[in-house]
C-alpha cells in the first residue's frame, strides 16, 4: 500500500520546512516540500527524474524555481499591471518592468499547510495557502489548495483549486525541470507536443498577442522530434530565448484532462507523458548559460540540462482579450489538473 512520511527539513524565512515522502507500491518515490510546494525529487527505479537540491539551502538562494508551485500568476504579466473592469492593479515587478511567476514573493516562497493521506492506489499530499488581498499587488483574498497524488502506476497528479472574495486573476503551474536520461542535457530527448500554434514574444519575452502556426518553423513538435534538432536554428524567436521558452496553444482545448505531450529518452527508453486541462503549456529548455545556477551536490547546471512543461493559461492573458481569460470571479472555483506519468 502507498505511504506518506514526513520529517523536518530545516527553516526558511517563512517558517519551519517539512519534507514529505510519497511512496507507491513499486517503491518509487516523490519528495515534496511544504516550502513552495516544491517537488524536490522524483525517483523511478533509483533514477532521479527532476533537477533540484539535496538540502533546503539551495532552494532559499537564487535559483530558477526548481519544482515549485508558481502563483498567483505563472509566467509573465507585461508592465506588471492589468485591469479588471475599470480598476487597474499595479503588481510588484521582478523581471525588469514586468512581473514573472507571481513576483519576488510568489507562492514558491510560501510555507503551505499540509495534510497527507493514502488510498489503496495512491499517496496524497494536500497543501493549502491563503494569499491575502494585495499580495504582490493582486486583488482578493485567495484560498488555494494544491493536491499531489502519487499513484501506483508512477503518475504524479497535481490538482489546483482556488476561490476568491474579489474578482482576480489566477494561473497556477508546477515548475519541474525533467531529465529522463543519463546525459547532462536533454538535447537527445525527443518531444511530441499536440500544439499547432504558439504565441511569439517581444524582446522582453512578453507575448506580442499574435497566435502563429508552428508549421514550417523550429517550433513544430506535432510529430516526435529530437529536442536539440532546431534549438539553435536561425530563427529570431529561438535566438531571442536562447532555445525554447515559449507558450504553445493546445489543440482543441475544451477544459478537459487529456494527453498533450510525450517526452522520451531514446537511450534508456524512459518516457514522460503530460496530461492537462489547461489551454497552454510553456516549453522551456533550461536556456541559462553554463554554471549560472547549480543543482544537486553543488554541481554547475549546464545549458539545456532539463525540459519544463509548464501547463498554464497564456502569459500576459490579463492584458490580451484574444487569449483565454484567467479571470476568477466571486462565487466561482478555479479548478485545473495536470498529470506527469512516467513509463
UniProtKB/TrEMBL annotation:
EC primary class: isomerase
Residues spanning the membrane = none
> Which NCBIfam families does this UniProt record tie to the protein?
PRK11055.1 (NF008277)
Catalytic residues (UniProt)? 175 (proton donor), 310 (proton acceptor)
Query: Any idea what this protein is called?
Result: Aldose 1-epimerase
Q: Which Pfam families match?
A: Aldose_epim
Catalytic activity line of the entry:
alpha-D-glucose = beta-D-glucose
Subunit comment:
Monomer.
The UniProt annotation places beta-D-galactose binding at 75-76, 175-177, 245
Cofactors (names): Ca(2+)
Is Cell membrane set as a keyword in this record? no
**Enzyme Commission number, as recorded:** 5.1.3.3
User: From the UniProt record, which GO molecular function terms apply?
Assistant: aldose 1-epimerase activity; carbohydrate binding
What the entry lists under InterPro entries is as follows:
Ald1_epimerase_CS (IPR018052), Aldose_1-epimerase (IPR015443), Aldose_1/G6P_1-epimerase (IPR008183), Gal_mutarotase_sf_dom (IPR011013), Galactose_mutarotase-like (IPR047215), GH-type_carb-bd (IPR014718)
Q: Annotated pathway, please? A: Carbohydrate metabolism; hexose metabolism
UniProt similarity note:
Belongs to the aldose epimerase family.
- Name the SUPFAM superfamilies for this protein: Galactose mutarotase-like
Q: Name one GO biological process term.
A: glucose metabolic process
Any idea which UniProt keywords this protein has? Calcium, Carbohydrate metabolism, Isomerase
Q: Name one GO cellular component term.
A: cytoplasm
Amino acid at each position: 500500500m502507498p505511504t506518506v512520511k514526513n520529517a523536518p527539513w530545516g527553516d526558511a524565512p517563512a517558517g519551519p520546512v517539512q519534507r514529505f515522502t510519497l511512496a507507491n507500491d513499486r517503491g518509487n518515490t516523490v519528495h515534496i516540500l511544504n516550502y513552495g510546494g516544491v517537488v524536490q525529487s522524483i525517483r523511478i527505479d533509483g533514477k532521479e527524474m527532476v533537477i533540484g537540491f539535496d538540502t533546503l539551502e539551495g532552494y532559499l538562494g537564487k535559483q530558477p524555481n526548481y519544482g515549485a508551485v508558481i502563483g498567483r500568476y505563472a509566467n509573465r504579466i507585461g508592465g506588471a499591471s492589468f485591469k479588471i473592469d475599470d480598476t487597474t492593479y499595479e503588481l510588484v515587478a521582478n523581471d525588469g518592468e514586468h512581473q514573472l511567476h507571481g513576483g519576488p514573493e510568489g507562492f514558491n516562497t510560501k510555507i503551505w499547510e499540509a495534510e497527507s493521506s493514502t488510498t489503496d492506489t495512491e499517496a496524497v499530499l494536500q497543501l493549502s495557502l491563503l494569499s491575502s488581498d494585495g499580495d504582490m499587488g493582486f486583488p482578493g483574498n485567495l484560498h488555494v489548495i494544491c493536491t499531489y497524488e502519487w499513484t501506483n502506476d508512477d503518475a504524479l497528479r497535481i490538482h489546483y483549486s482556488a476561490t476568491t472574495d474579489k474578482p482576480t486573476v489566477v494561473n497556477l503551474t508546477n515548475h519541474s525541470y525533467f531529465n529522463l536520461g543519463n546525459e547532462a542535457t536533454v538535447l537527445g530527448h525527443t518531444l511530441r507536443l499536440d500544439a499547432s500554434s504558439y504565441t511569439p514574444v517581444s524582446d522582453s519575452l512578453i507575448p506580442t498577442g499574435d497566435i502563429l502556426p508552428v508549421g514550417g518553423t523550429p517550433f513544430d513538435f506535432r510529430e516526435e522530434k529530437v529536442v536539440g534538432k532546431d534549438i539553435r536554428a536561425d530563427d529570431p524567436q529561438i535566438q531571442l530565448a536562447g532555445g525554447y521558452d515559449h507558450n504553445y496553444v493546445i489543440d482543441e482545448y475544451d477544459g478537459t484532462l487529456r494527453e498533450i505531450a510525450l517526452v522520451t529518452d531514446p537511450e534508456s527508453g524512459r518516457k514522460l507523458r503530460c496530461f492537462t486541462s489547461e489551454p497552454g503549456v510553456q516549453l522551456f529548455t533550461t536556456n541559462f548559460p553554463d554554471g549560472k545556477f547549480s543543482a544537486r551536490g553543488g554541481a554547475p547546471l549546464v545549458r539545456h540540462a532539463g525540459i519544463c512543461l509548464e501547463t498554464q493559461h497564456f502569459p500576459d492573458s490579463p492584458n490580451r482579450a484574444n487569449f483565454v481569460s484567467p479571470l476568477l470571479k466571486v462565487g466561482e472555483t478555479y479548478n485545473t489538473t495536470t498529470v506527469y506519468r512516467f513509463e
